[in-house]
């Protein structure tokens, strides 16, 4: 399977595995995944066959080994190219953590009958939790707060929407299974890196007016309370002419509990168009942009690949190469962007993303060990402030740009 180092000129750090008891990756494999299965079992009335399959997966993912997809699986060839044969027979804990997590969600879809011919075909096992969040009063509060933006300068409005999208990344339902009620940490500034000025310099206002303006790719992460502010940001960028077109990359199938799929985009859009005030205006703008082609939604198979973006296929590479800027959202996408490795925290972000075919920005709250691009002083302060939970607790965030 491909294993392109993220940055050929930077010595590659070791790939993260899940086999170290007490480590964050080990906890995800040993505890978070079984908890996700329990939640899925409770949230939908699956019949005995599906329940048995879920129980079998619960045992297999903790005690068993990787078993190949069935011969008639529609994506068997793809998974073969992504390393399935190489890892068959090995413990889930002994293969790259990035790989075994994606494998978990793929096998979960088998267990619930997503690919099958039966009644559960195409039914998102995470839909109940996604919808509960989208319909929550907190979403209303966030949409109502948009009307307060009118009092701000144009630059402050843009920053507010950027930060809404950034901190929306805390809305990760899988994460909340293992870190409920995490509160921001007062000891160190919440932003560990802030390249927002560089980001805005790549998207000047009105650069996108007329026919020759730029395209922004936004590689989305979670649905619901992350996707809503992502859509608001896109609407604002289109409305202010900072971009002429936007491409929203979402997942082709349910993944990492709350990751956005095309169906989730429609749900979020409905939430916006059904809202009041500025939120509704942005909803209408996005609806029109979808109909006239200024906004497109992509669900590329590689979006659910168990591999770093350094291994992206040529068609995706060409898309990102043509964009004025690609904004990559969230923790998992960050791991895939820089490579899921034990990088020293001060490793240059520009080096580990040198392979990326165009300007790229990461907007991410920190929910796993991987980190690059920190100033040494920032790292020292974070470490001095206490334990290493700043890496995984979602209390800190970053905006990093490589142009
Ligand atoms: O990508 P997201 O939604 O920001 O976060 C995904 C996440 O919760 O799941 C992984 C562990 O399962 C970590 O990368 C991260 O903590």
Please explain how this structure is put together.
The chain contains 17 helices and seven strands. It has a seven-stranded mixed sheet with strand order 1-7-6-5-2-3-4, sandwiched between helices. Helix 1 packs parallel to helix 5, helix 8 packs antiparallel against helix 11 and helix 11 crosses helix 13. The chain starts with 23 loop residues before the first helix and ends with a strand. The mean pLDDT is 92. Strand 2, helix 11 and strand 3 form a beta-alpha-beta unit. With 403 residues, the protein is an alpha/beta fold. The protein folds into two domains: 105 residues, Transcription Elongation Factor S-II, Chain A (Up-down Bundle), CATH 1.20.930; 271 residues, 3-Layer(aba) Sandwich (Rossmann fold). Bound molecules: 1-O-phosphono-beta-D-fructofuranose. 1-O-phosphono-beta-D-fructofuranose binds next to helix 1, helix 9 and helix 15. The site of 1-O-phosphono-beta-D-fructofuranose has 16 residues, from helix 1, helix 9 and helix 15.
């Amino acid at each position: 399977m491909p294993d392109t180092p993220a940055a050929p000129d930077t010595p590659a750090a070791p790939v993260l595995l899940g086999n170290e008891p007490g480590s964050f990756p080990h906890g995800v494999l040993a505890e978070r995944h079984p908890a996700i299965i329990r939640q899925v079992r409770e949230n939908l009335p699956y019949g005995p066959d599906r329940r048995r399959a879920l129980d079998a997966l619960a045992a297999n993912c903790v005690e068993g080994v990787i078993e190949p997809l069935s011969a008639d699986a529609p994506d068997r060839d793809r998974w073969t190219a992504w390393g399935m044969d190489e890892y068959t027979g090995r413990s889930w804990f002994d293969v790259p953590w990035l790989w075994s997590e994606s494998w978990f969600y793929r096998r979960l879809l088998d267990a619930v009958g997503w690919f099958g011919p039966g009644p559960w075909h195409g039914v998102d096992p995470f839909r109940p939790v996604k919808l509960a969040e989208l319909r929550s009063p907190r979403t209303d509060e966030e949409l109502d707060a948009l009307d307060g933006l009118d009092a701000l300068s144009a630059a402050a409005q843009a920053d507010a929407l950027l930060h809404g999208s950034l901190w929306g990344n805390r809305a990760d339902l899988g994460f909340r299974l293992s870190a409920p009620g995490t509160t921001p940490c007062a000891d160190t500034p919440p932003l560990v890196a802030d390249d927002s000025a560089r980001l805005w310099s790549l998207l000047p206002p009105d650069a996108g007016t007329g026919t020759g303006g730029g395209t922004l790719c936004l590689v989305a992460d979670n649905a619901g309370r992350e996707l809503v502010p992502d859509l608001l940001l896109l609407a604002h960028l289109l409305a202010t002419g900072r971009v002429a077109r936007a491409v929203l990359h979402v997942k082709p199938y349910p993944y990492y509990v709350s990751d956005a799929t095309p169906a989730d985009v429609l749900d979020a859009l409905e939430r916006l168009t059904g809202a009041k005030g500025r939120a509704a205006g942005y909803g209408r703008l996005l609806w029109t942009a979808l109909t006239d082609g200024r906004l497109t939604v992509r669900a590329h198979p590689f979006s659910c690949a168990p591999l770093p973006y350094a291994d992206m296929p040529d068609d995706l590479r060409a898309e990102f190469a043509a964009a004025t800027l690609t904004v990559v959202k969230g923790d998992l996408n960050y791991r895939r962007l820089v490579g899921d490795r034990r990088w020293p925290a001060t490793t240059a972000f520009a080096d580990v993303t040198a392979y990326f075919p165009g300007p790229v920005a990461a907007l991410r709250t920190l929910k796993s060990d991987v980190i690059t691009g920190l100033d040494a002083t920032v790292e020292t302060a974070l470490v001095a402030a206490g334990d290493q939970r700043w890496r995984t607790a979602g209390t800190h965030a970053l905006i990093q740009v490589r142009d």
